Amino acid sequence: MRYSTQIKPISCLKANATEVLSKISECREPLIITQNGMAKAVLQDVNTQEETQAALSLLKILALGNAQVAQGKTRPLEDVIKSLRAGTAERTLQRSGDRRPGPATPPQHRLARRMSYHVLLAEDAEVDLRGLYAYSAHADSVQNADRVLARLPDIAESLVASPERGSIPQELRQLGLNGYRRIFFKPYRLVYRMHGHDIVIYLITGGRRDMETLLFRRLLRN
Q1: Which residue from 16, 119, 155, 174 has the highest number of Cβ atoms inside 10 Å of its Cβ?
Q2: Architecture, CATH, for domain 3-44
């Protein structure tokens, strides 16, 4: 952007407010407003502002994830899935008083066979997954929450087969950052990155989740 073409005095804004705002929305570039020859304010359309804030929030979320990876705060996706299923099975047994294993849990050897590779969750991504599972189990049903879990091994397997299959997150594409990828499994999206022979998942969230709110909750936990 050439700032020399995006500078207007406040008198121009007062006299041509509708036209100026329309141009900002059309070109999606900020406009610098001057008063007495000095820059005093910046006008930007709402959509661009929201996209900018989402991009900054996602960058901060990824920075937190990178710090966790550097500190070894990761866990295999397979282990987290087993832990969630075991917790659900235990609660079911406690409610029923039956010590026999329930039929809803799939054979663990099948998961182990399909997860014979390194797909890791950063610490915050594990919290994401546990939160989504708990919400789905409470708001809908345990069966529906289990169906979400059942899709993850297939998704992980597809990533290992083709790590570049995901698209660059829209928030990062506009910044020219292509080291991260995203894939969707409705209604969620997953953001990941390759680290050597590992695929590290940084984020699992609803497709329309507000990045600023997600960042705020991460900062509170950390």
Answers
A1: 119
A2: 3-Layer(aba) Sandwich (3.40)
